[in-house]
Design brief:
Length: 283
């Protein structure tokens, strides 16, 4: 997909971070943009920002863990613009770090509801619409380099991101087999300067986290420092646009992680046990 002018992009998690950066990037290409987010005030601010760029924008309050919200998002986009050409299933949360045996059911339900089910609902809702349109289109699913690695104390987050990677690979193969004019990209960034470490601001009260041990909190602060020193969301958005143009499936933004990915694959093929760690320099 190379012609973006007057096309329609839908971005979940579009009020901040990578989502907002993608919305801005699409707006600069002359696209009409639908931004969806669970944060009402941030969503209103993002809408004002995109509109100030001279772009046509629609903001829709959306909880991606609820299928009815995704269906309403699609209905609003179609009502406003009649078509959807790019959908970015981008909304995500972090948190829930620590030993896997200590993670609560609430941790799993919260993170999987957003990071995994949000992508599933997005695919189930938007891909049939794109197929019916019969026009060039593209799906971008936000995973993470954590979907290609397995490091200690991030089991919940990594499980969702590994799932998003394989779902995206499968979707790509299935659309290709169907001869559909729909591309697929899976975004696997490393550390990006976003508010992901503050995701609990949107955590449902019924899934609230219990007491966190000092060791777990120390680990979170270590990850926070790496996020704060990370790549700018705008740089990631540039790479996403390039991937859509070039119909690239994999969007790896941080080449410094490539050796870690290679170590993991080599260990699997060799039947060798491996414990990966992330160094502070990898951001």
């Amino acid at each position: 997909m190379r012609d973006f002018k007057d096309k329609v992009a839908v971005v979940t998690g579009g009020a901040s971070g990578i989502g907002l950066a993608m919305a801005r990037r699409f707006a600069r290409e002359g696209m009409r943009v639908v931004i969806a987010d669970i944060e009402v005030d941030a969503l209103a601010g993002a809408e004002r920002e995109i509109r100030s760029m001279g772009a046509t924008v629609l903001a829709v309050h959306t909880d991606v863990s609820r299928p009815q919200d995704i269906e309403a998002l699609a209905a609003n986009a179609l009502r406003a613009f009649g078509r959807v050409h790019i959908v970015c299933n981008n909304a995500g949360v972090g948190g829930a770090t620590g030993p896997v045996w200590e993670r609560s059911i609430g941790d799993w339900q919260w993170v999987m509801g957003v990071n995994l089910w949000g992508v599933i609902y997005g695919i189930r809702t938007f891909v049939p619409l794109m197929l019916k349109q019969g026009e060039g289109a593209h799906v971008v699913n936000t995973a993470s380099v954590a979907g290609l690695l397995s490091v200690p104390f991030a089991s919940v987050y990594q499980a969702t991101k590994h799932a998003v990677v394989t779902i995206s690979e499968t979707l790509y193969a299935e659309l290709a087999a169907a001869g559909a004019r729909i591309g697929v990209s899976v975004l696997c960034p490393g550390f990006v300067k976003t508010r992901i470490m503050d995701s609990s601001r949107n955590r449902p009260a019924e899934l609230a986290e219990g007491t966190v041990s000092p060791a777990v909190e120390a680990g979170r602060q270590r990850f926070r420092s790496m996020v704060e020193a990370g790549m700018s969301p705008d740089a990631v958005a540039d790479k996403v646009l390039e991937a859509i143009r070039e119909e690239k499936l994999y969007v790896l933004t941080h080449p410094e992680f490539n050796q870690r990915i290679r170590q993991r694959v080599d260990a699997i093929l060799a039947g060798r046990n491996l414990v990966l760690q992330i160094a502070a320099s990898e951001h």
